[in-house]
Design goal:
Helix content is about 40%, strand content about 20%. It has helices at about 20-30, 40-50, 65-75, 95-100, 115-125; strands at about 10-15, 35, 55-60, 85-90, 105-110. The two termini are about 15 Å apart. The protein is built from 5 helices and 5 strands; from the N terminus they run E-H-E-H-E-H-E-H-E-H. It is globular. The longest helix has 12 residues, at about 115-125. Helix 3 links the parallel strand 3 (about 55-60) and strand 4. By secondary structure, it is an alpha/beta fold.
């Protein structure tokens, strides 16, 4: 039985697609506290308030301020350099894009993704 004083891990989810946000909420909210942001700009604002999630799940392609820009800014800042990141994307060449990024991405999944695979990756990174 889980101890009632157990602190749940917090995941920042950044995606502009409502269907993906709903899916992630459905599969993850029982086990984690989710903070949902619909753009990189919203995510940066939330993080600048001093919030420190255990993990960030971000879409790669979003308007204005994409996931690559978001993660690069976080890794450069130093404050979130060690925060694990999972990128989600519908891009066909996602593996090449991740490989060519000038910073470390802990994991990535192509959309549509298998919820069990996502949960397994999260568990490996923060549990």
């Amino acid at each position: 039985m889980e101890n009632s004083t157990t602190v749940r891990k917090q995941i920042l989810v950044v995606d502009d697609e409502l269907s993906i946000l709903r899916l992630l909420t459905f599969i993850l909210s029982a086990d984690y506290d989710l903070v949902i942001k619909k753009s990189g700009i919203e995510a940066i604002s939330w993080l600048e308030e001093g919030n420190d999630p255990n993990l960030i799940i971000s879409d790669l392609m979003m308007p204005y301020f994409d996931g690559g820009t978001l993660i690069r800014n976080l890794k450069i800042s130093g404050l979130y350099r060690e925060t694990p990141v999972i990128l989600l994307s519908g891009a066909e060449d996602l593996e090449d894009k991740v490989r060519n990024m000038p910073f470390k991405i802990d994991s990535y999944l192509e959309k549509p993704f298998n919820p069990a695979v996502l949960k397994s990756k999260i568990a490996q990174l923060i549990n």
